[in-house]
Request: fold
Amino acid sequence: MWDPLMPPVAGLKLQFHTNWVEPGDCTLSRVERHPYAAQAFLPLDVGRYLVTVFPAAPDGGPERRAAKSFVVPGNRGVIYRQGIWHAGISVLDDPGSFAVLMWRGAPDDDQFADIAPLMIDIPSSR
Reply:
């Protein structure tokens, strides 16, 4: 959630962003976590979207084999618990706009990990 126009100053930060539908299948290869803060996504104008989370492996990285994915209706928000590995939100039907709330302050609170490609099977109906 780093934005060069919004330096990491301690406090609750609000961002707005639009996600675009990615063509083809949904294959994940990079995940992130925020060890010091929860992150809330509030849909503003969204259809269905995909949320994928991973528990931590014994070495602290994401446990790819234990990934859980959820298709979330556009009238429900999600909060990623502090420290949970997660993929970026993927909108499924149309572009979607979200408000994102997150406490900022720790300089190393955005951690990323590459994973072996993981294809997510998504139901095709709305």
Notes: The radius of gyration is 14 Å. The chain has one domain: 11-120. The first strand starts at residue 11 and ends at 19. The mean pLDDT is 89.
